[in-house]
Amino acid sequence: MNKSAVLAIACFGLGAAATHYYDTRPATVPAVENAKTPPAPAAPDPELAFASIKFPEEPLWAYGFDKTREKGEIAKPQNPPNRNLRQNEDPNEQTRMRKIEGSDASYSLVDVRDGQNVIDWFPNDHAPMPNVVQHGPARLGKTTRGCGSCHLPNGKGRPENAGVAGLPPSYFIKQIQDFRSGKRHSADPRKPNTNTMIELAKSLSDDELKAAAEYFGSIKWTPWIRVVETDLVPKTRIVGNLFLPLAQAKTDPIAGRIVEMPENEEQAETYRNPHSGFVAYVPVGAINKGKDLVTTGGARVVGGEFVRGKTTPCITCHGPDLMGAADIPPIAGRSPSYIVRQMWDMQQGTRNSEAAQLMRLVLTELTQEDMVNIAAYVSSRPPTRAAVKQTE
Q1: Using CA atoms, how far apart are residues 213 and 73, in angstroms rounded to an integer?
Q2: Separation between Cα atoms, residue 295 and residue 154, nearest integer Å
Q3: Rounded to 5, what percent of the chain is helix, strand, coil?
Q4: For 168-207, what is each residue's pLDDT tens digit?
Q5: What is the pLDDT of residues 149-162, one digit of tens each?
Q6: What is the DSSP letter of 366?
């Protein structure tokens, strides 16, 4: 029996506000009046852009926050990377050369933090980094940063940004174009790296964009996140929108969240080791519940009758192996924090490409729990292309 659901496609729009002015003529003015400059139109209320977002229902953990946004809270611009020594750290420790297991390279902490000259612990893992991946858009000059500084040289990314390895170049390019045009931004205006991404996207030349898309698209996505069902998680702190453990013991209730953190904080944070992955803690039972939504959309057969589910099965577009096709991105084995963040962004209408608007229809009836379950299952799946059955 076909378990796919049928979607009705609807259009939506945003209203625009108009401003006006008027002149006042005193009763005793002479016949000839001097020209007057009309008053400047009132600045638009920046909160109008977020008026439709359901902040009280936001999956805060997916954005790396633990408190609901208050009116007027927006992200501060991120400082461009530099090689300055930190005043609160020993200068000798910051400049001491270091090594990590399995790598022949040596870097200091100053080198690791220099996002305008991205380090590469394992250059043999991939083709040489294009200039834009290692050094950033040339147009930004001293304020630039290389793509690899956040997404890592192998494109694996981290929970607070995106894994871009293995994305179809055409999809990669379309997302950058959406950032440029304003069709894509974060549903939480406090998230600073989204604004940085928008600035970088607007600064990329066409050649730089093509080079980055083809480079990351050529890198195979391999397992990077370990998904673990649990009732309890370690106590954490949030640094740069990333969960970091305060202790190894699991003592805090997971409370319906996904808590994604480095397997090894020192390797991931201090050294930016692209071989050191992440563990994602998810609620007990989330994977099986997610499998139902991903593969059937929650459809049922009741009394011999087919009852459609609350959503279209993810496999309908992303494929039975969730590895995507053509311009549809692969999602198997990717960060569950990122997956929930993007589902919420699209549901709230802050991703507005044609494909994202269709996804919004798919997501309309999903609750935060549904999104957690879907992400738990999708992230637990091996990122490998399913074998094609041969027929005579």
Answers
A1: 33
A2: 30
A3: 35, 10, 55
A4: 999 999 999 999 999 999 999 999 999 999 999 999 999 9
A5: 999 999 999 999 99
A6: -
Phi, psi of 73 (to 5 degrees): -75, 120
Q: Note whether 169 and 188 are within 8 A (CB).
A: no
Instruction: State whether residue 235 is helix, strand or coil.
Output: strand
Do 133 and 120 form a contact (C-beta atoms < 8 A)? no
Confidence band (pLDDT; 50, 70, 90) for 49? confident
d(CA 106, CA 112): 10
Among 249-258, 299-308, 315-324, the least confident range: 299-308
DSSP of 323-348: --BTTBPP-TT--HHHHHHHHHHHHH
Where do the domains of the chain lie, and which CATH numbers do they carry?
91-217 (1.10.760.10), 223-380 (1.10.760.10)
Give CA separation, 265 vs 146, 177, 191, in Å: 22, 34, 22
Angle between helices 336-348 and 354-363 (to 10 degrees): 100
Question: Sorting pLDDT into bands at 50, 70 and 90, what band is 48?
Answer: confident
User: Using CA atoms, how far apart are residues 215 and 128, in angstroms rounded to an integer?
Assistant: 9
* pLDDT single digits (tens) 27-44: 343 444 445 556 666 667
Q: In this structure, what DSSP letter does residue 28 have?
A: T
Alpha helices by DSSP H, 98-168: 109-113, 131-135, 147-151
